Amino acid sequence: GGGAFNVIPDSVIIGGTFRAFSKESFMQLKQRIEEVIIGQATVQRCNATVEFSSKDKPFFPATINDKELHTHFQEVAREVLGASNVKNMLPLMGSEDFSVYQEVIPGYFYFLGMKGELDKKPASVHSP
C-alpha cells in the first residue's frame, strides 16, 4: 500500500491463510482465490499476480481420521473412560503436521482433556 490511507499506491501486497477439510477442496479454493484476484484486477484495469508461499509456511493436508481407527478408538475409550466421558467433536479448521503422517499410514487424531468436578468444561492437556 501507500504511505497514507487516501493515496492510491503503486502496488499492494495482501497476505493471509486459508484452510479446507480435504485436499481437493483446498486445491479448488486455491484456484478460485487466484481466479477472483486476477479477475478483479482486470475489471479495474490493473495487473495482479498471485503467489502461494510454501517455503516459510508449508501446506499441511487436512487431518482426516481413519474410519476403522475411529471405530476402534471410540470402543476402547468408552470401555476405559465410560461412554459419557467420550465426546464427539465437529471438524476443526486447525493446521496440524500430524496429517503428513496420515498420507503414509492410517492415523487417528483426538483431543484429550481433563476437568475437575466443579469445572464446566474440560481443560486441554497443555493447560496447567
UniProtKB/TrEMBL annotation:
Protein name, entry field: Putative auxin conjugate hydrolase
Origin species: Tragopogon dubius
GO cellular component terms attached to this protein's record: endoplasmic reticulum
Gene3D superfamilies according to UniProt: Zn peptidases
Gene Ontology biological-process annotations: auxin metabolic process
UniProt keyword annotation of Hydrolase present: yes
Keyword annotations of the record: Hydrolase
GO function term, MF aspect, one: IAA-Ala conjugate hydrolase activity
Ranges annotated as spanning the membrane: none
